[in-house]
Amino acid sequence: MNRITKIALGFVIVAVVFLPQLVNNNYILRLGILAGIFIMLASAHNLLMKVGQLSLGPVAFYGLGAYISAILSTRYHVPFLICFLIAGVAAALAGWGIGRLTLKMRTAYFVLVTIGFAEFFRLVALNWTDMTNGPMGITAIPAPAPWFKGYNLYYYFVLILVGLVLFVLYRLENSATGRAMLAIRENEVLGQSVGIDSYRYMMQAAVLSSFIIGLAGSFYAHFFQFIGPEILGFELTITIVVMVIAGGRATLAGPVLGAILFTIIPEVLRAATMWRMVIYGLLLVFIMLFTPDGVMPALVKGFQKLLELIRRRNSRSQKEVSADQESILADGLSNLVATINSSSAAEAAKQYGNAPVLEVDNLSVYFGGVHAVEKVCFSVNPGEILAIIGPNGAGKTTLLNAITRLGPITSGVVRYKGEEITSLSAHEIAKKHIVRTFQHTSVFRRVSTRRNLLLAHNGQEPNGILVNLLQTRELKQLEEVGRQLAEEILKFTGLERYGDYPANALPYGDQRLLELGIALGADPHLLLLDEPAAGMNPTEVDNLMVLIRRIRDMGITVVLVEHDMKLVMGISDRIIVLHHGKQIAMGTPNEIKRDEVVVNAYLGKVYKDVETVGC
To answer: Which of 47, 340, 536, 610 has the most beta carbons within 10 angstroms of its beta carbon?
Structure first.
C-alpha cells in the first residue's frame, strides 16, 4: 500500500467514524447503518466466492439469525449478547450441515441446495405461527440495552461489527488460509496436488460466512425491533450477490464498495418513481459491461496504470537482460540446495536408506469395460530417475493419477516408504511429499509467477483458522521460508525476471518451467513429471534435462512420463513400457532400445500373447 493510498484510506476512516457529528441527520445515519449490515452480508457471502462457490441462500442464514435472536429475547428474555452469539452459532451450524451435504458434490448441487434451504426456511417462518407468528412477524424486539436510544449508538455498534469482520477477513486473506482459498479458486486440482485440502477450506468458508451473516441478522432484528418473513425473499439474495459481483468478487474491498453503492443508489433513484427500476437495470448492465471484474478492481487497475505511467516517465529505459541459461540454473541450484532444511528430500533419502521409495503392486484402473491400467507392478529406488513410456492411450497419465489419487484405483496397492497410501486423498498424498506435474500445463494462471510459488508452499503451512487469524510466530516463520524458497526456485528455473508477471503472460516453455517450480515449492521427496517436455523446442528440452538431473542430485526421486526419446534415454536410470494399459517391458535405456516388443509397439505393429512384465 503506497503513501497516497494510505492517506486516502485515513481520510475515509476519519469521515466514517465522525459521520454522526458531521451530518447530524437521522436519515443519513439510518442509511449508514443499513450499509453496515449489507457490508457484513456481502463480505461474508464473498468468502464462498473466494473458494469458487456460489450460494443463492444467504437470506436463510440471515433470517435464521434474526428469528433466533428475536424469539430468545421476546419469549425467553435472554440478554442481547447471548442472543447475538447464539444466532451466529446457529447459522454457522446450518452452514456446516449444508456444506457437509453438498460441498463434495460442488457447483450446481451447492447452488440448488442453498436455494432450497432458503425457500424451506421462508415457508417455516410463514407457517409455523406458534413460534414465528407467521405473516404477522415478531414485534417489540428489545433494543440491545435499555440505554440504546437514537441512531448514533446503533451506528457505532454496527461500525464496530463491520470493523471486526473486515479485520478478521483481512487477517485470513493475508495468511495461509487466504492463499489456499486463492489457489482453490484459480486451480483446485493443482492446489490439491501441492497439499491444499480444498474441501476443508470450503467448509471453513461456509461456516465462517454463515456465522457472520447470522450475526448481521441478529443485529437487524434488534435494530428494527420487528422481524417478518419478507426479509427471506429472493430479492435480498439477488441484492447481496449484485453487491459482491459489482463491487469486485474475491477482493476484500470490493463487497464493501458494492454494499455502499447499492445501499445509496436505490435511495437516490426513489425520485425517478416509475423509471427507477429501468435506470437501476441499465446501471447494472453498464457496470457489468465496462467493469466485468467489478468496480473496485477497475479503480485499482486505473490507479496502478496512472502510477506506472508516472514511474515510466521518471525511470531510465530498461536494458535487455541476456544471461546464459546454464549459468542461471547453476547459480539457482547452489542457493536452492542451501535453502533446503533438515526435512528436505536429501535428508529424508539418507534416513530412509536404500529400500524402494515407491512400490506399485498389481495396480489396475478400469473405466467400465475399458482397462486403462492392467495389473502394473514396479518399484522406484531412492535417487532414481524412472521413466514410463508408451504410445498414446497406453495408460501412463492414468497410472500417475492413480498413484497421486487424483484418479480412481480399481484394485492393487501403492506403498510409499513401506506405508500403504492407496486410501489417502490427493492432498494427503502431497503432504507425504509426493508431488506431480500435469500433462497439460497447469499453473495458477491469473496470479504472478512469484505468488504461484508461494501458493505451492501453502500445503506445508498450518491450515487452522485460529492459527492464521492470530498470525503466530510459527506461521510467520513458515511464511518466510516459503518466500525464500520461492525466490530460490525463481533463480533455479531461470524465471527470476518474470517474478511479477501473471503466469498466463509467460511464454509456453516458461509456463512449463513454472509448473516444475510449483512442484518444487511443495517440497517433494518423490516427483512425478507428466510429459514435462510437451510443446518445448529442442533448446528448452536440453535445459529441462539439465534441470531434472540437478533435481535428482538434490536427493529427489523422479518418475517421468514422456514421449521425447532424447530426454528419456538421456537421463533415465530405468524405463518401464506400457501398451494398452499393460506393462510390456522394464530395463535400462540400452535394454529398452533393443527390445523387439517395445520397438514393435512404437511402430504400431500387431502382436499377440505378450507376457506382462514386472509382477
So the answer is: 47
CATH topology of domain 328-603: Rossmann fold (3.40.50)
User: What is the structure's pLDDT at 105?
Assistant: 73
DSSP string computed for 48-93: HHHTT---S-HHHHHHHHHHHHHHHHHHS---HHHHHHHHHHHHHH
Q: Which residues of 100-131 are buried (b: 16+ CB within 10 A; e: fewer)?
A: eebbeeeeeebbebbbebbeebbebbeeeeee
**pLDDT of residue 268 exceeding 90:** no
Cell of 516: 516444475
> Phi, psi (5° rounding) for residue 461?
-105, 160
Counting every residue written for the chain, the total comes to 615
CA dist 260 → 26, 222, 252, 254, 313 (Å): 17, 21, 14, 10, 36
Residue among 425, 385, 422, 465 nearest 196 (CA):
425
Partner residues linked to 575 by β-bridges: 387, 587
> For position 327, what pLDDT does the model report?
44
Beta bridge partners of 477: none
Note the pLDDT tens digit of each residue in 61-114.
Answer: 999 999 999 999 999 999 999 999 999 999 999 999 999 988 877 667 888 899
What is the overall mean pLDDT for the chain?
87
Tell me the pLDDT tens digit for each residue of 539-579: 999 999 999 999 999 899 999 999 988 899 999 999 999 99
For residue 203, what are the contacts with CB-CB under 8 A and spacing of at least 6?
A: 96, 99, 100, 103
Inter-CA distances, 543 with 376, 420, 525, Å: 32, 35, 22
Distances in Å between the Cα of 345 and the Cα atoms of 23, 338, 352, 469 are 64, 13, 10, 31
Closest CA to 256 of 165, 191, 141, 178: 165
Report DSSP letters for 230-278, one per residue. GGGSHHHHHHHHHHHHHH-TTSSHHHHHHHHHHHHHHHHGGGGGGGHHH
Over the stretch 12-30, which tens digit does the pLDDT of each residue have?
Answer: 788 888 888 888 889 999 9
Q: Residue 593 and residue 599: Cα distance in Å, rounded? A: 7
Give the CATH class of 3-302. Answer: mainly alpha
Decide: 458 and 483 in contact? Cβ < 8 Å.
no
User: Would you state the cell numbers that stand for residue 139, as one nine-digit string?
Assistant: 414485534
Alpha-carbon distance 400 to 403, whole Å? Answer: 5
Mean pLDDT calculated for residue range 602-612: 55
Domain extents in the chain? 3-302, 328-603
